[in-house]
Amino acid sequence: MVRTAPQALAQIGRLATPAAETLAGPVEAKVKDFYREVSRLLPWTMSNYNLDEITTLSELRKNVSLLFRQNDHVTDPKVVNILIYKGREELESVALQHKQRHHLIGQFVIAPSKMRAELHRKRDISPFLLKFFNNQL
Amino acid sequence: MAACSAAGIDIPRFCYHQRLSIAGNCRMCLVEVEKSPKPVASCAMPAGPGMNIKTDTPLVKKAREGVMEFLLINHPLDCPICDQGGECDLQDQSMHFGSDRGRFTEMKRSVQDKNLGPLVKTVMTRCIHCTRCVRFATEVAGVQDLGMTGRGNASEIGTYVEKAMASELSGNVIDLCPVGALTSKPYAFTARNWELKSTETVDVSDAMGQNIRVDARGLEVMRIVPVQNDAVNEEWISDKARFQYDGLKRQRLNVPLVKGSNVLEPATWEEALVAAKGAISKVKGNEMSFIAGKLADAESLIALKDLANRLGSGNLKVEAGAPLLDADVRSNYLANSTISGIDRADVILLIGTNPRVEAPVFNARIRKTFLDGAHVAMVGEEVDLTFPVENLGAGSDALAKILKGSPMLKRLKEAQRPAVIVGPGVLNRPDSAAVLQQVHELVEKADVVKDGWNGYNVLHDAAARVAALDIGFMPSARAASAPAPKLVYLLGSDDFDPADVPADAFVIYQGHHGDKGAARADIVLPGAAYTEKNATFVNFEGRTQRTKAAVPRVGDARNDWEIVRALSEILEKPLPYDTTDQIRSRLADVAPHFAEVDTVQSPMWLNGEYFKAFKDRAGKVSAQAQPFSSSVANFFQTDVISRTSINMAKATHARNAIPH
Description:
The complex is a heterodimer of chains A (about 140) and B (about 650). With about 140 residues, chain A is mainly alpha-helical. Helices cover about 70% and strands about 0% of the residues of chain A. Chain B has about 650 residues and is α/β, with parallel strands linked by helices. Chain B contains 21 helices and 26 strands. Chain B is globular, with a radius of gyration of 27 Å. The interface of A and B includes residues 121, 125, 128 and 137 of A. Chain B: Belongs to the complex I 75 kDa subunit family.
């Protein structure tokens, strides 16, 4: 697994080009490419950051796809490009180990599980109930 | 001294206390009076016309410095380890009048500490013999336990024989002691007064609504002390109000629980509320019953009542007490004379009440009235009220005898301001309707209610009771025909009647302590204790008072009325209030006096119309013979907080050890 890291890094170096240059072309394909790119790095991330104690690979994959889906309402190609660019920055800092373990746990384990809980809630929840559940009253 | 403080001049003092007799033995309050050869003790000197008092002459200062030097001769220099440090009269005044060097080269005297029980700690070497505690015990608390023995340098304060103080008000000597000789045992060495955050709030350990100050450090209540309110508790509080706070740290419910396979398992709020919805939607409105506990606040009571009515249930109840009182006429369930009004009564008849355990501070007030010359008589089991009481009998036959014409009836009739106090010993009886009719007849016959004076008083034993009656949290007309409940909602109710909670019923418990209610429950919703919420309570004279949150709630607990509000939305019957202000305006809509905080609105007296209606409604019931006995068996342990408190358990133990 660890062997994949330098390869991934090389890829990232190649793909992390300025947003303006990648404006051309259909964005859907680019999003899919980027998602695959992220997915390929997940097994290495699991072992390198010792995340086995916290979560499983499939769980992590689900969480990442949830984070992707958080932006599924975005259609403007410019915005999509920016999002991919920002996502790649994140990916890079994971791959280069600029992020530490607790960053990953917070960002890719705890936050998505909270989002999922919110999604499970009824859509027409009142502001009162939302505050009640979040202990903000 | 009173004249000087009226003129805005503060005179230093140790032994003088406004509510105690004058001893004049500390000599700290010396002032110079013109034409008097020596300085005089201002506490004992009556102010006369044309008297010229000088309080800041060199002579006065010199005299006070001399007194201070003598006091400090035998006072240990242990301020750094003394619990009084930082709030000590002697410390403060020695900064003004103390010398910067001592001339005393001999040994300081030392005195053996006395054991006054588990609540009051003594370090008798620090005592300066002001005798405030002795005077408090004999004059206010009415127990002859403390006294002064020995003379001169050998004099000591103490119990004559080794024993705990047998008073429900013993904690007040801690506040009275101007030095660190009497301090709080549970508070000892736990905090310094300058690191505490104080919050003035209201006590709920009895129905009197004693004003208290909760001193907290961080998340923890460190101690509770009284706040002066002449209309309610003067400046005393009961030992339960003062020392039960350690119960707030134990056995708390801090997370919602849902019964899984036979055991309660932690759940999120959402899961718990959805589970509650599942249970509630399975039963019909009339098959649900709602029982409120002793510590329920007005906001959660009104929210729960509104929710119950929306669900089609009128089966509302307050646990253990007054099942037959109704809310139609407010003067029927309040202490109409008011607590401070009792001071003016000249004949008092207690029926089925033992105020010494039901409201000790109120008992001290009745005692004060007695000392002022009032005649006090009682009908009920013989108890020691700390002052002589004429016992007229134990049960309803004694009432009948009074009604037939007895010296007591004559006495009540002749009195200017007679007061009849009916207590839980009558209200909790199954035959209370019959006894209350007798009482009503007595009230009519003896002219207890007259122009400018209403002497009919009802004394309650639980903080939630009056607010529940004000709101109408009681069985509806339809409730009598309701089937056995299949779902019971307990709002902090732990002393419920087992008959009200059938074995097959689904139980939802909302409250702050894991006790009988939570043990029986299928769903537990953690609420807030009285030190953790801003809530409204009404005391037994009808005074609306509000608690203030002194510490945050524990764990994932929520405010009580907000839990009910959230549940109502999950049930798709949302209640129309989202904020505390909104629910309070709803309270004020139901009963206007909820908007008038800290005042008593004197209720209407319908010239006995109510008594007639009561008689018609109750019909013919016959009174049973057993004596009226108080609802409070053990003063120290009456509700969930005091039952979980170790201080209260120790106090119970110490009290039981005292031979009667």
